């Protein structure tokens, strides 16, 4: 079970994001639809995140690393990461999740660094190869 929440840089995530054991969780709200998103990311808006944790757990079954982000990863991303860690501790659910990470500088930093951004409207996003 994940013991603590750590941060991951955009460069680290760029290298790791295609691994089958990683899920990227975008907790931004409406801005995802017009700002784009990290290819292959899952969308769980922060305002309803707590209500959808059990759905998230089903969606990420088999993943051992979850990377959370919002626009800047200063409030919503870290808050949702902590909520998931608390949930796992409360229900004593292992779920195989070893690492809960937060993307440094969030989506804005990811995009500003010239990293791939998808603007599809697929739910979930299927664009892993950008």
Automatic annotation (TrEMBL):
<dbReference type="GO" id="GO:0008794">
    <property type="term" value="F:arsenate reductase (glutaredoxin) activity"/>
</dbReference>
<dbReference type="InterPro" id="IPR001763">
    <property type="entry name" value="Rhodanese-like_dom"/>
</dbReference>
<dbReference type="GO" id="GO:0004725">
    <property type="term" value="F:protein tyrosine phosphatase activity"/>
</dbReference>
<dbReference type="InterPro" id="IPR036873">
    <property type="entry name" value="Rhodanese-like_dom_sf"/>
</dbReference>
<keyword id="KW-0560">Oxidoreductase</keyword>
<dbReference type="GO" id="GO:0005634">
    <property type="term" value="C:nucleus"/>
</dbReference>
<dbReference type="Pfam" id="PF00581">
    <property type="entry name" value="Rhodanese"/>
</dbReference>
<protein>
    <recommendedName>
        <fullName>arsenate reductase (glutathione/glutaredoxin)</fullName>
        <ecNumber>1.20.4.1</ecNumber>
    </recommendedName>
</protein>
<dbReference type="GO" id="GO:0005737">
    <property type="term" value="C:cytoplasm"/>
</dbReference>
<feature type="domain" description="Rhodanese">
    <location>
        <begin position="18"/>
        <end position="119"/>
    </location>
</feature>
